[in-house]
Description:
Blueprint: H1 16-31, H2 41-44, H3 55-67
Amino acid sequence: MGGRIAYAVGYTGLCVASTRFGAEVMLDLLDGKSSKPTQTDFVKQKPLPFPPEPFRFMGIQTTRWVAQP
């Protein structure tokens, strides 16, 4: 892609197939290629942040506090 670097993040490690799918969609988007996955609402629309702030921060901090040895 013209020497550019692209990456996808946010995978939880539950499935290799999801990372492969994400990479294929990302490459199609970078190449400007229209494919079945790139035409889905899942890809075309930005997701709403969930949970919304400040609840996300509080949840993360609570999890860190509980997980401390």
